[in-house]
Specification:
Helix content is 26%, strand content 26%. The chain is built from 9 helices and 15 strands. The strands form 3 sheets. It has a 7-stranded mixed β-sheet, sandwiched between helices. It has a 5-stranded antiparallel β-sheet with strand order 7-3-5-6-8. A 3-stranded antiparallel β-sheet has the order 2-1-4, with no helix packed on it. Bound molecules: NADP nicotinamide-adenine-dinucleotide phosphate.
């Protein structure tokens, strides 16, 4: 089969499109014929060698949409989604025509959505949806998406606007030239994030923070009483908040939560698919690449113009 293999850490050119043996069935696992997958920021970290537990050579890819090719548990042809669970990390992942997955991380789905929409689901929409639920949002809240031009950021805004068309959502970017694009996508306002400091005095009721610990203390300065921040992303490249003192650092009467896409069940995955259908959420891949264009897709995601 064709696959994209990484043999050593480095730039996108280290992702090699090549022939490899089709995975062989083993007990407790199922063979999946891959239909589509999204490209995730965490795969860029891994490609650069910033995931120390991942040993090369490896087929990366922490998610996929596909159909059952061979299984002792699921019928052939059943459409499924898979995500996380060390896929593309401890064992080979989604950048391939076929992948072998543990049965417990295969989530059968019922959907007539196009593949370009479904490909945006596993990590991007699921994470945006989980963060949205954890933020306990109502229509009167002012909402900030910190890291709004990311896949998760745009998906979060679209999911929320579909349910509450009049809710006010502010997005952030480091780049002036992305401001109009964010407005065109549906954000009500854009704030520039300069060296992890928001260029505004405004405060918000709900924040999804996709920059993470690099910016979290600054986020705390922009929270109203009774507000909630959900720390979901790590785009700032720092993984933990050093010397975090909850009593001193947290804004008064506020709440800190997080979301992790490893927390997944088939019911939750189906719930997001049903939500997107019910609310007619306009979700689709920003760009579509063929399997042999995975290096180009990484370049695109890493470029200054990425959206
Ligand atoms: N909690 C979970 O389970 C979970 C699941 C999925 C993803 N995530 C995390 O969520 C975040 C978003 O993921 P994604 O795949 O949607 O990202 P993405 O689409 O790759 O994000 C691209 C955007 O990131 C921004 N960016 C890049 N480097 C940055 C830096 N050093 N500082 C600030 N902003 C930077 C850029 O925005 P501008 O140029 O506009 O500033 C760029 O448009 C990532 O940190 C990812 O690891 C978490």
């Amino acid at each position: 089969m064709k696959a994209v293999v990484i043999y050593e850490a480095g730039g996108p050119e280290k992702l090699i499109y090549t022939d490899v043996p089709k995975p062989e069935m083993k007990e407790g696992w199922s063979l999946i014929k891959i239909q589509a997958f999204g490209i995730n920021h965490s795969e860029i970290f891994t490609r650069k060698g910033q995931s120390p537990s991942v040993k090369f050579p490896r087929i990366l890819g922490i998610e996929c949409v596909g159909v059952i090719e061979e299984s002792e548990v699921y019928p052939k042809g059943q459409q499924i989604i898979s995500i996380m669970g060390e896929m593309g990390r401890a064992f080979d992942g989604g950048y391939a025509e076929y992948t072998l997955l543990p049965n417990e991380q295969i989530y059968p789905i019922e959907s007539d959505l196009p593949l370009e929409t479904l490909a945006a689901f596993p990590e991007t929409c699921y994470t945006a949806y989980g963060s949205m639920l954890n933020l306990n949002i109502d229509e009167g809240n002012s909402v900030l998406v910190r890291g709004a031009t990311s896949g998760v950021g745009v998906a979060f805004m679209k999911l929320l606007k579909a349910q509450y068309p009049n809710i006010r959502i502010t997005g952030t970017s480091r780049k002036e030239k992305k401001v109009q694009r964010l407005i065109d996508e549906g954000f009500d306002e854009v704030v520039i994030d300069k060296d992890n400091a928001l260029q505004t005095d405004k405060k918000f009721d709900r924040v999804i923070d996709l920059i993470g610990p690099a910016a979290l203390r600054d986020t705390f300065l922009h929270m109203n009483p009774n507000s909630i921040v959900c720390c979901t992303g790590l785009l700032g490249g720092i993984w933990a908040l050093p010397e975090f003192d909850p009593l001193e650092d947290m804004p008064p009467d506020s709440y800190l939560t997080s979301f992790h896409s490893g927390n997944v069940t088939a019911a939750k995955m189906q719930a997001i698919i049903d939500y997107i259908k019910e609310h007619k959420v306009d979700i689709k891949a920003e760009k579509v690449f063929a399997l042999n264009e995975v290096p180009k897709s990484h370049e695109n995601l890493e470029s200054a113009d990425s959206f």
